[in-house]
Here is the input.
Amino acid sequence: MYFTDRGIEELASRRGEQEISFDWLADRLREFVDLNPEFEIPVERLATWLARLDDEDED
Here is the structure.
């Protein structure tokens, strides 16, 4: 188990029933990076990965 799994599990348990838009998620990611600029690269990588999940070229 990775350390981040705890945060992911908390997210799922606290907000798992909610429906959100990708616009909302993008705004929260921008807000997070504004508050924590040292995480800009990991957040960018996560956002790019999520954006390209359906790309057949990535498989």
Notes: Helices lie at 4-15, 22-35, 40-51. The mean pLDDT is 89.
